[in-house]
Structure formats: C-alpha cells, structure tokens
Amino acid sequence: MAANELTVFREVILEVAGNLTLLKGRTFLALLGIVIGTAAVITMLHLGHNAREAALRQFETLGMDQVMMQPISEGSTVPDISLAVVTGLPNQKIGISKVAAMVQSGTSIRFGGVQIQAMVLAATEEVYSIGKIDLLQGRRTSDLDGANLFAVIGAGIASEMKNVSGLPVISGDKIRVGSQVLTIIGFLNEAVTSPILGVDFNRSIIVPFAAARRLLPSASISGVAALLAPGSDDTQTAKAVAEYFDRRMPDGTMQVRTAHQLIDNIDRQMGIYAALILGIGAVSLVVGGVGIMNVMLMSVLERRQEIGLRIALGARRGHIRLMFLCEALILSFVGSAMGTLVGYLTGWIFATGSGWRFEPAPMTLPVGVGMAIVVGLFFGIYPAMRAARLDPAVALRGE
Description:
With about 400 residues, the chain is an alpha+beta fold. The chain has 12 helices and 10 strands.
C-alpha cells in the first residue's frame, strides 16, 4: 500500500506540474505576489542582520568601553561646562577612567592656495587614547601646548591636501583657518569611525583644547569622550555621570551614550523598520495567496468534467484534494524560492552599497520555507476541498 500511495503521489506531482506549465499567464500572476512578499521579508531580515553585525564589528575594533556625553541645553545656547568639572569626573570613582573635553566646528582650511572642508576638533590630550587613534608621523597635541596653534591632521584631510594642491604635506607646513595660521605637527593613521563618539577623525584637524578660543566661534565644550573603568556597569555609570553633571549644570543636562545603549537603539530601530517591511510583505503575501486561490478555483471550474470522470473511475476524493492542494503548494514554493533569491540579491546590494560585509541572515531559509507552506496550505485548502466535494454525476453533465 505504501508503494502504491507513493506512486500515486508521484503521478499527482508530475500531472500538477504539467497543468501549471499550461497556465503560464495565470501562474505568473499568482507567483508575482508571493515573490514580492517573500522578497520584502527576506530583504528586511538581511538588512537588520547586516546592520547589527556591522555595528558590532565596529565595537569589536574599538571596544565596548567608549562613552560619549553631550550637553543638552534648556534654551538655544550650549550649556557652559568648566574644564575642571570634566577633568574631575574620573576622580569621582563612578565608573569612568578617562575623559577628553572636545569642541567641534566645521570649517574650511587653506593650503597651497586651495580650500578644503574639514572639522576642527579642539580636544584635551586624552582624545587620542579614548578614540583609539594612532599617530602616523610627528607628535600629538598636548595639554602643555596651551593655546598654541598646532594641528594634527587626519588621514583623509592629509590625502586631500596632497591631491588638490599637488604639494607634499609634511610636519612644519602651515595651514590657514580663517585669519589664523596653524602649524602641522603630526599626521594620524587611517581611523575607524566610532559610532559612539560620532567623530570622523579622518576628516578632522585636532588642535589643543585651549586653542578653541582663538579658532572657533564658541569655546564652550560641545562633547565629552570617556572610557569606562574596567568592570564597570555601563547603565549604572551612565546614570551616575548624568547625576554628576546635573548638580554642576544649572542651565542644562548631560546626555550619556554607551555602546550597549547604542546597540539597543539599533535593535529598536530595526524592529520598527522590520515591522513596516513585514507589514508590506504580509499584504503582498495575502495578495499572492488570493491569486493562488483564484487560479485554483478557476482550475476547479474548468476541470469539473475531468474531476467527475476521475471520481467515476475510482479516484478517491482524497486524491482529488491532494492534487489541487499540491498545485497550491507548488505555486507557493516556487514563488517563495524566487522571492528568497530576490531577497538575497537585494540584501547583498544594500549591504554592499552601505559598505557592510554581507552575511546571510540565519533565519532566511526557514522563513522562506515556512511562508511557502503557510500560504500554500491556507489559500489552497478551500479550492482543494471544493474540488473533492464535486458530485461526479453533476460534474459529468456540466459543459
């Protein structure tokens, strides 16, 4: 019996495949919705997975101990924080080992008669160790430099200076920022941009912190970079740091951002995007499922005499039900397979365009197969039941 049932099942599959190839137009329309819906879901899975992996790779390179603090004003001006308050933070023993006060401002520099857009970063000397940035040549700026106009040039800025001016760039060269002339004392290696600090050191010019008064429109501290002390809990430390500054900032508050908080924010954002895309995918899957059901119902109407003849010759109603259910499942599986391939390709394109290393999301294949089974069964069961309930006498008399 088992061998007989297997033979019947194989014959049903072959006949179903032949029937679907004859209905090319209807088959394509039925597949389209499944393809779009599956592709949307698979693409979203890839995007979410690769975005999170890219962020985690950055954290692995730079460490999970970076902390960024940003003063938030209750008005329109930046809250005034004294340098002594910032540098005194590690002495509080609340989980911070190093701090660097920073003042940032976008500007243009002149070198060799050309202008280049850059970020001027006035910072205390701990910024190098906190930002995990290495020196390629020369020396770093130091707190002992005072307000002297010394500059350490980021790798991207140095490369652009050489390309646009046609001149070699060496320590001791002069650059102009506004009316001030700065002396280059060092060059940075290519640096990985930290998602926590939010500073692109490759496009920055680092100057001594005290030089901000001579170079920038405002010398107010715009950010504080820090490192967690070994063994510190980032959540408790962030809370203690915020309380520390609240007592010393009457005109504002301090926003504290840690690596774990940023990862949680990424997960929440990707969850929102996933819900939107999954909603679109679900609608497309429903449309595709309805298309499959319509194709099956039309097939039942057109093949009434065939169905009646099969039943009259001894075919079981279960075989009729199986035949039409297999049609729905085949349509669904083919559509899901095509949608999965499109989703893989789209995910790869987005990941490559974003500069990420593409890694397939682990749940894509189970989700693709699962959607095929659910859609095929849900939208194929009604036409299959309707075909199996046909009265052979009525069906054979029908035109």
